[in-house]
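Handout, page 2. Input:
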Amino acid sequence: MSPWAVLRVAFRALGRNTMRSFLTALGIIIGVAAFIAMVVIGEGAKARVEEAFSSMGTNLLIVLPGSSSQRGVFGGFGSQPTLTWDDLKAIQTEVPSVRHAAPQLRSTASVVSEEQNWTTSVTGVTPEYFEIRNWPVTSGVSFTASDIDAATKVVLLGTTVVDRLYGPGADPIGQTVRIKGMPFQVTGVMVRKGQSPMGQDYDDAVFIPVSTFRSKIQGGLNNFIAGSIFVGASSPASTSKAEREVRSLLRDRHHLPPEADDDFQVRNLTEIATAQQEGTKTLTALLASIAAVSLVVGGIGIMNIMLVSVTERTREIGVRMAVGAKPRHILAQFLTEALSLSILGGVTGALLGLFAAWRLAAQFGWPMLIRPSIVVLALVFSGLVGVVFGLYPAQRASRLDPIEALRYE
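Output:
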């Protein structure tokens, strides 16, 4: 028989029991759908994590005052003002793996335009802060060193603040807003940044020169940094080295003995992002493994039904052998039926899996990243399941004795 004739006979046999064929392939459908949906969703979640951490900045370290445990006493960020402006200058000049270091001082205040007001985060920074966080202005101009030196009252607005004060798409450049009753001239609008990994709206903030913040918002100058230090390493590969160097420098400057805990915290966001991605990858692999088990269970279902089919069609097999069919023809026929069931189930499952992934991605706001290799892998695996679990029933059918098969009632 030609391959086309074998395929036609197989589909005719499957069509005689449509419901049973569907139920037989159901395990394959569920397994393939679950496998594709889990992998696609996992890729989307991984991309979302990468995007969220990338929005915070590249090669980024954050140095915070205080420590989680110091001399047996637990305290969090800001519990002790341990970072000084001289520490910042030392990090900028004495750590070779650091490209930039910038302070970040924050407060909350009401920002008032001519018609609206909005309570938001007021952040005092230097121009290096925007380079570390890879956060340029989308219109207008950013701060300059002269703004820092002169403590000018200029402000950069986040897009959420622009939307609240002036309406979406408005151009506030040159306008005046009042912060704590003081007039500030708007010189720029920041590029929209989106949300942090914790769901914080980065764009709901305004930025002023750090010197202006210290004198006008903080209410006076002191030797300690009432905030954090953002550190940008010179390259992704040097981030861990920069972390070690910053930690060593600060311990030396703070005269901490070897047995003493740090009186500061250094958070390496690259390591945190890597840990998040590894966690997502592990979870995806676990779910894909469970889906693969479903495929194996579906294969067992195919084998059971094919064995029943061989028993039901024993007389038919005997007739075919009596008119000249060889054992290899019988083997090919039943193997083709099992393979057809698994391939049809695989294609149906792939479509269902892509649909489920699309719905879940839309629900969670994740990107839907489809790798064709994943779909091909799922279809090939489902085909292998059909071959492996259909082989035994097919061999059993091909080894029947024609005389005994013709006598079978």
